[in-house]
Amino acid sequence: MDADKFDSLLAPGADFSGHADVMLHHLNGAMDAGHSGRGMLEHLVEALPHQTIATFNSDKLVDFRSHRPWLSFSDWKFTEVEMPEIRLDLLSDDNDRNFLVLHGPEPDAQWNLFLETIQEIVRRLGVRQTVGVTGMPAGVPHTRPTPVHLHGARSESLPKQPKMVGEMILPAGMDQLIEFTLGQTGLDAVGIIAAVPYYLAEGDYPPAAAALMSAVAAKTGLALPVGDIEAASALTLGQINQMVEQSEEAGHIVEILEQHFDEAEPMAIIETPEEPLPTAEELGARLEEFLKRADRLNRGAKLSNLNEESLPVADASGISSLRDTPYEKRNIERLRPRRGRHRRDTPED
Questions:
Q1: How confident is the model at residue 3 (pLDDT cuts 50, 70, 90)?
Q2: What is the pLDDT of residues 180-199, one digit of tens each?
Q3: So what's the pLDDT on residue 74?
Q4: Are 100 and 22 in contact (CB under 8 A)?
Q5: Mean predicted confidence (pLDDT) in 258-284
Q6: d(CA 54, CA 41)
Q7: pLDDT at 70
Q8: Is this structure's pTM higher than 0.85?
Q9: CA 59 to chain centre
Q10: Average pLDDT, the chain
Q11: How far is CA 12 from the centre of its chain?
């Protein structure tokens, strides 16, 4: 890639002299139920030593009316501004292994050039594996482990999962295009999706972020601070359970979802064998049962006790708020030393 073309989307000061064989990515803008992908990456950046090695030019990539800057206002004056920015951070895991995190708002323009730039960055830094993370709303209960699913360019690197029937056509997000584009070059480019209870999809749902982190650690071998985010998950689930207990309707819906979850056959987690096509009578019976289930779920889909405003933000247990607030700017010259396990970094004296 031509040097001028490569530098055109990057802010001055980018440093690609290091090395990392893994890059994690999530860019806000497309689907991310429970703020799962964003929450996981925010937690990693706050919990581990990190250095910003590249910042993208927001004026060329970001629509500021869609991603408005945030202003601090006190004593009748504006005191600070936080501009939306896409960052590439270099982090160090608990075994001092370096890896990359690409995060920030999804670009609003120049997607093709952005993808070419990511390709060149990956090549320069020696990345061999990329992992995109996100959450998806699903008919699962919060009282059961969060299911995760993997997809990727190299089918041999994926675990056994339910067999897909047919083809889906869906609008692409930048994370999916990164996976596709890098996969075409031969990299092990994968995506990990956490299934988030549909009635909790609009708020912060740390259990999904914890499930994503565990899956990323298993896939990449990175030693990540899973314990901190699991503590936030336990706190959040306890608070959700208290609210469900106060609503008979909510409790009924959760019971239905639990029953469906528990009745899933073991074969559902591996490839299902081919079966003969059902008869018209069997299809009618299955459709009738599906409509009955859908009607029961739809009647309880709006749970007033479990809306976004009433859900607490689990910031007391080590995980930051995952809501749409501006990213904290960190401008340091080197990786900071660890100051105790997974504590927030403090300025150097």
A1: confident
A2: 999 999 999 999 999 999 99
A3: 95
A4: yes
A5: 55
A6: 16
A7: 93
A8: no
A9: 25
A10: 79
A11: 28
Are residues 190 and 149 in contact, defined by beta-carbon separation less than 8 angstroms? no
Contacts of 211 (CB under 8 A, 6+ apart): 36, 145, 146, 147, 148, 194
Separation of alpha carbons 331 and 184, rounded Å: 34
CA dist 293 → 39, 286, 297, 300 (Å): 32, 11, 6, 11
Q: What's the confidence (pLDDT) of residue 319?
A: 33
pLDDT in tens, 58-80: 999 999 999 999 999 999 999 99
Q: CB–CB of 41/24 below 8 Å?
A: yes
- Which two three-digit tokens encode residue 136? 């998806």
70-74 vs 77-82, strand pairing mode: antiparallel
Q: What architecture is the 3-295 domain classified under in CATH? A: 3-Layer(aba) Sandwich (3.40)
Rounded Cα distance between 12 and 4, Å, is 12
Is residue 54 a contact partner of residue 10, using CB atoms and an 8 Å limit?
A: yes
Sketch the domain layout of the chain as residue ranges.
3-295
Ramachandran angles phi, psi of 175, nearest 5°: -60, -40
